[in-house]
Structures are given as structure tokens and as C-alpha cells.
Amino acid sequence: MPAAGRRLLVCALLLVVAGVAQAQEHPMVVYFGTYSQRGSQGIYVYRFDPAAGTLTDTGLRAAANNASYLAIHPSGRFLYCANEDWSHPMGQASAFAVDAATGALTFLDSVSSHGGGPCYVTLDHSGRELVVANYGTGSIAALPIAADGGLGEATAVVQHHGSGPNKQRQEHPHAHSVTIDPGNRFVFACDLGCDRIFGYHLDPNGGTLAPNDPPSVSVAPGTGPRHFAFHPNGRLAWVVNEMGNSVTGFRYDAEHGALTALDTISTLPFDFTGHSTAADIHLRSDGRFLYASNRGDDSLVVFAVDGDSGHLTFVQRVSSGGKTPRNFAIDPSGKWLLAANQDGDNVVVFKVDADSGQLTPTGQTVKVPAPVCIKFLP
Is 330 inside any structural domain? Predict the structure, then answer.
């Protein structure tokens, strides 16, 4: 290629990189799901400025009963929530339309989750199925999504069976989360009551869930698997164990949907003697660092990730800035982490160091009653 052509190509690439950087720094919408406590109004809509790491209340709210977990459609046009209402034997999942300009939510419909205490929802990558985990009854269900974003009646319902050694917490199954693998072929359901992660074949076209072979993988008895996260390379995954206050790694066979356990590492300080339960787990988008939250110790813990072996190395543990950090989220740029402190009634912003993964509180804190889920609108 002639020198002039090379210069033009370099200039074009620089413009593309600059455009991506600008897009990452454009203000975006962030949603906070809340429990219906202490004056909560449902789902809160905030603006987040990724250039400054600041949150601004839009004043927008969407009425939703115990919106304990949220999921955003791949198109960005719809939002879904699990309505964790324990006053009824069967829970619900709700659908909302998203206003692209303001982030405002318009209620579309609610359907049965076909189980009690729904606590988690996720979408397959094509946006055709919403999968919900019912904690109370230990079941999962697939709900079809219509062209207008509304939810249809369940096309598949799967009931888990089993129990664990903790008679107060593991008397029967408690499905706590559902995660779709990167290939959109398998669903993994963490069941706290059974100490197992169940695997299912997913058919987004027919909305079916068929048990995989092997049907599940077990964690240490009494540890209670809660939330699950894949590495961006698609070959590794981790589960945070609620009662075990630990993270267990797995090697992932994407062809067969099989998980092979690696090592387990504690999320708590070695000298911690109080009561604490682990809650959430996420990786930064580059896969170099993994984060988890502790409720009781009220902290966020950071691990460096070896992307080949899956080995985790402790980096840092920092106060969540409130009480009971149930959920947290890393913004799309990877520069900021927002922590939702359920019993502290606040959301705290942390700066993420790009090289070390360490967290530094920015001083930016907003008051939100009983926040339990955070989702960014891309």
C-alpha cells in the first residue's frame, strides 16, 4: 500500500477508536429495581455520566411490586422484572416498554412465573425468551416474548428436586438465578437448596428447556450456589456461593454444556467471625478482574483472573459504602462500579482502576429505598 494510503487508513482507524470512546462516555440510563419497602416506588430511573461517574435522578418511576431483578431486552426497547411477592403462592414477571429518549418505562403486562418467590430473570441472546428463577418453589420457567415486548404464557416449566444439609435454608430446592451461556445454547440454574447448578438445553424458537447430559454439577454441601458468571472467553465460569461465602471456578465445555469444577476461594477476610452471606458476582468486560459482594461484612471483593487457568488471586476488599450490598453492576466502559446497598438505602459509585482492578469510592452516593438490582441501558 502506498504511504499516502497507509496514512489515510491510520487516520480512519483513529477516528473509529475516537468514536467508540465518545460513545462509551455518552450519558446513559441506569435502572434501580427495589423491594417494596420504606417508601419504595418500584423501579427508579437515573442518568449516569460515564465521563464523570455521576448519577442524576430523572424523577421517573415505574410502579412494580418487589422488582427484585431486572433484565433489558437486547434491542434496548423493553425491560423485564421479577415480582418477588411472597404474599401469593405464584409469582409474576412483568414487561415494560422503554422510551429511547428519556428511559421512561410504560407497563405492558404481567404473567405468571409458574412458581413462588421469583427472584431472577434473564433473556436469551436473541431476545425471544425470558427465563425466570422461582426461589420459593425451586423451579424455572421460559416465557415467550411477543413482537411488542409483551410476555406470553410459559412454554416450559422445570421443577428442581433435592435438598441440602442446612435444614433452615435447604429444606427443598431454591432456584436462585438463571444464566444463558455465550453460545445461547444452554441455561444454567443455580439452586441454593440443592447445592447444584442445573444445566438445560435452550431452544429459543420453541421456548423449550430440556435437561442436559450431565444434568447438573454440585458444589460443596451447604454452600448454596447463588449467582453465576461466564468469562468473556467462554471457556471459564464462576459461581458465588451464598452460605459458603466463596467463589467456585469451572472450566466450560461449550460444545456439551459441561462444567468441570476448579478451585474455590473465600470472599471474606480470613479473620472474619461475624455472620455474612455472599450475594453477587460479575466480571469486568475485559475478563481480567472478578468482583463479588458480601452482606454482613458489607464489602466488595476483587480478584485478578488468569484467563487460561481460571485461577483467582485476591486483589482488594473494600467497604460497599452501606449495609447489605445485594447487587452491583459495572458500567459498559468498565470504568465504574455501582453498588446497591439494600439495607443502607443507597447506591454508591466506585472508580475502577483499569490496571489493577481496584475500587475507589468517588464520594457519589444517591439515596434509593431498598435497592436490590442495577441495570444499565446500553
Answer: yes
- Nearest CA-CA partner of 93 in 126, 69, 73: 69
d(CA 80, CA 94): 6
Q: Is residue 1 part of a domain?
A: no
Is position 12 within any domain?
Answer: no
Task: Provide the domain count of the chain.
Answer: 1
Note the helical H segments in the chain: 3-24
Specify the 3-state DSSP secondary structure of 54.
strand
Residue 164 is assigned to a structural domain of this protein: yes
> Rounded to an integer, what distance in angstroms lies between the CA atom of residue 208 and that of residue 37?
36
Determine contact, residues 166/243, Cβ cutoff 8 Å: yes
Residue by residue, pLDDT tens for the chain (378 residues) are 444 444 544 344 344 334 444 445 789 999 999 999 999 999 999 999 999 999 999 999 999 999 999 999 999 999 999 999 888 889 999 999 999 999 999 999 999 999 999 999 999 999 999 999 999 999 999 999 999 999 999 999 999 999 999 999 999 999 999 999 999 999 999 999 999 999 999 999 999 999 999 999 999 999 999 999 999 999 999 999 999 999 999 999 999 999 999 999 999 999 999 999 999 999 999 999 999 999 999 999 999 999 999 999 999 999 999 999 999 999 999 999 999 999 999 999 999 999 999 999 999 999 999 999 999 997
Q: Is 14 helix (H, G, I), strand (E, B) or coil?
A: helix
- Measured between alpha carbons, how far is 13 from 26 in angstroms, rounded to an integer? 20
Distance CA 289, CA 231 (A): 10
Q: Any idea which residue has 421443577 for its cell?
A: 159
Q: How far apart are CA 213 and CA 207, in angstroms?
A: 19
Q: The domain spanning residue 209 has which CATH number?
A: 2.130.10.10
Is the separation of the CB atoms in 362 and 370 below 8 Å?
Answer: no
For 149, the grid coordinates are 415486548
Helix, strand, coil distribution of the chain in percent, nearest 5: 5, 50, 40
As given in the structure block, the three cell numbers for residue 203 are: 431452544
Rounded to whole angstroms, the Cα distance separating 164 from 276 reads: 19
Q: Distance between CA 138 and CA 120 in Å, rounded?
A: 12
What does residue 242 show for φ and ψ, rounded to 5 degrees?
Answer: -60, -55
- The answer to whether the CB of 197 falls within 8 A of the CB of 189 is yes
